[in-house]
Amino acid sequence: MNEKLSYSLSGKRVWVAGHRGMVGSAICRQLEKEECDILSIGKETLDLRNQDAVLNWMTKEKPNAIFLAAATVGGIYANDTRPAEFLYENLVIETNIIHSAKLNNVEKLMFLGSACIYPREAKQPMSENALLTGPLEPTNEWYAIAKIAGIKMCQAYRRQYGCDFISAMPNNLYGPGDNFDLESSHVVPALIRKFHEAKEQGRSNVEIWGTGKPLREFIYVDDCASALVFLMKNYSDDEHVNIGTGEEISIGDLAKSVSNTIGFKGSLEFNPEFPDGAPRKLLNCQKISQLGWQAEVGLEKGLALAYQSFLEAS
Ligand code: GFB
User: Fold this and answer.
1) Cα–Cα distance between 145 and 116 in angstroms, integer?
2) Residue 2 pLDDT more than 70?
3) Average pLDDT, the chain
4) What is the DSSP annotation of 293-313?
5) 136: which DSSP letter?
6) 134 to each of 23, 120, 248, how far by Cα in Å?
7) What pTM does this model have?
């Protein structure tokens, strides 16, 4: 590994923006292994959409490093039906934080994106250089445009001001702290809740949105947090970095796995009235694996852990 690229978190003031979200809380768990001071602030005290407030708070708290995990996120239905919120809130949060970080001479910033930044028809598995090579998946283009702008902000601030701002693109995340609201959640928490409730209520079938044919790659959130901290310490360049597992599964097979994990004995009913979204989203993770990181939690174990955390939270 190139020693010049290494960044030590030891003794640093590290702001986790979005610390109550699924990824932010996993980053905080991961940072407990580092000798750093974790800074956090709730949205009731600091509105990240308010540029002056963000700048003032940062000027007072003086973080050395920032994990930018604050975002408006959601599954396919939320993305498709709330385009203005997904575009505006994500753009304003990331521009406020990145610009204030530059004004405050923050040493290092990690911007968190998503695999939906790649074109719908990108060659699979998708490499970092597939960015901006074709049209986006329509169900999430608003969110994707905001995340692409975040990558470009980091690159532009690196190029013009020499800021050490980097970005990482994880694939579909799941795990403790997930959103289990059926309208706004992603597929894994939605299926956990649907199968759990169907089992409790003795129902004979569960509705699965779409055809069940799309392929997805899922990454357990603590694995993602470990990759983010690893990159913060070991990566410094303008290209974003993919984070995935290399394990791919159809939504139909995922539904069977979740139903087995929960012990639901009924049938699955696919409803093609709901959109499938992207046909396939598998990341090429050669870059991060060459840097020396790989995922540890396989899907079977991850689903069991995610179900356990759902039971503990409910
Ligand atoms: O997880 P999900 O909402 O996000 O949906 P995307 C994945 C697939 O699961 C889609 C199907 O084909 C859904 O139709 N699915 C089946 C369900 N049943 C359900 C259900 O009950 N709830 C949900 N939510 N899906 C999102 C993007 O895309 O992925 C975001 O919209 C972001 O921008 C995120 O990138 C990671 O993988 O389709």
Assistant:
1) 9
2) no
3) 97
4) ------HHHHHHHHHHHHHHH
5) P
6) 28, 8, 23
7) 0.97
